[in-house]
Design goal:
The chain has one domain. The protein has two helices and 24 strands. Strand 12 and strand 13 form a beta hairpin. The chain has 374 residues and is mostly beta strands. It is globular.
């Protein structure tokens, strides 16, 4: 596998001059050119030892060569690094109604191109977000154990660890400017310690009432832990009071997806989906509980499908984050004005052409590769 990307971003900002005219701000304007080459080699082996037991092992080696240049400052950042990413899975079915599986996997979480484009987005004169061309890729390691009974009921335990976690960290301090003390707050995109997540889930995927109701239900507990410290702006080198996160939260988790068939002809369907997760520690502070109720209706007529969806109809999926440090610094983010509700209507016609299906499969595979190499 090989993936080559070149981006050219020229962000030009203006400053208000004394005569109330805008003039180019050469200090804050950034022309950033980024080239990235990713080369990958895959090796996989699988073995079926018996009707009850099988295993699969593999590894992927990726080599990344990248160079970013800020043309305004004549500043260049070059990185060349390799990553060995192993994979292993085991499946065991001792009886017809019982199956066990374990999977270990690893991947690289690369910063998005907008995250390394070194521009500032000002919220106020002293409060802004700052992207960072020095952000490194983060290795992510996942483990998952799954038990399934009668292909309908299951227990899932998942573990994820992210090293050099990519986060947006708030740094703040007080400075005296022209005899006046002001508060400075910067949200800096950078690598911030380690992040851990463990999920304990009991679930069910089953049909009821002669397949008129298809239900997928998950109940569980999610553990989140963030462990990191930062006291220096990686862009300017300025010192700040240390921002520390070393906390663990346990959050209840509920997810229910219900598909209801409304007629014998299997042409009308009604969907009711709901999720809830309690407060959880994330890399910028404590995220308040989130929940959402979604509704949908679908009509199938010959090769046509008509569908309508309503997302977050109660407007409960609102981000609220808070954090207070031992220094007395606090950080609150409330997206009260943000409306996550959406309503969509779609009409689809199925041509039944296998060539079209094959093209779609190729496109899906391409999308997977693009997501993998972000």
């Amino acid at each position: 596998m090989t993936n080559y990307t070149k981006t050219d971003n020229n962000v030009m900002l203006d400053a208000l001059a004394g005569d109330r005219n805008y003039v180019p701000d050469t200090d804050l304007s950034k022309h950033f050119v980024y080239n990235e080459n990713i080369f990958g080699v895959y090796l996989t082996a699988n073995k079926k030892f018996s009707e009850k037991f099988s295993a699969k092992v593999g590894s992927r080696y990726e080599y990344t060569k990248s160079q970013g240049t800020v043309l305004n400052d004549n500043q260049s950042i070059e990185r060349n690094y390799g990553n060995l990413l192993p994979y292993a899975s085991i499946s065991y079915a001792p009886a017809d109604n019982h199956s066990f599986s374990y999977t270990f996997s690893s991947r690289i979480r690369r910063p998005s191109f907008w995250e390394i484009n070194p521009v500032r987005n000002y919220l106020t004169n002293t409060n802004y977000t700052q992207n960072n061309p020095f952000v490194k890729a983060s290795p992510v390691y996942n483990q998952e154990f799954n038990y399934m009974y009668k292909n309908a009921y299951y227990i899932n335990i998942g573990y994820s660890q992210t090293n050099d976690n990519i986060a947006q960290v708030p740094l703040q301090k007080k400075e005296t400017v022209n005899g006046e003390e002001i508060n400075i707050l910067r949200y800096i995109r950078t690598n911030f310690g380690k992040k851990y997540e463990i999920n304990y889930i009991v679930g069910m995927n089953k049909s009821f009432f002669k397949q008129y109701l298809q239900t997928n239900l998950n109940l569980g507990i999610q553990m989140n832990r963030v462990n990191g410290t930062l006291d220096t702006d990686p862009i300017t080198g300025e010192k700040f009071p240390e921002f520390i996160l070393n906390r663990t939260t346990y959050s209840p988790l509920i997810q229910a997806n219900n598909n209801i068939r409304l007629d014998k002809a299997k042409s009308w369907f009604f969907g009711v989906n709901y999720f809830y997760i309690g407060k959880q520690q994330i890399d910028i502070g404590m995220l308040k509980p989130l929940q959402s109720l979604d509704l949908s209706i679908k009509k199938v007529w010959n090769n046509w499908t008509f569908a309508a969806d309503a997302r977050d109809i109660l407007r409960t999926n609102i981000v609220k984050i808070s954090d207070t440090q031992s220094t007395g610094n606090f950080n609150n983010i409330y997206q009260i004005q943000y409306d996550n509700r959406s309503y969509t209507a779609t009409i689809t016609y199925n041509f039944g052409n296998n060539k079209v299906k094959k093209i779609r499969d190729i496109e899906n595979a391409s999308d997977a590769i693009k997501n993998r190499t972000r």
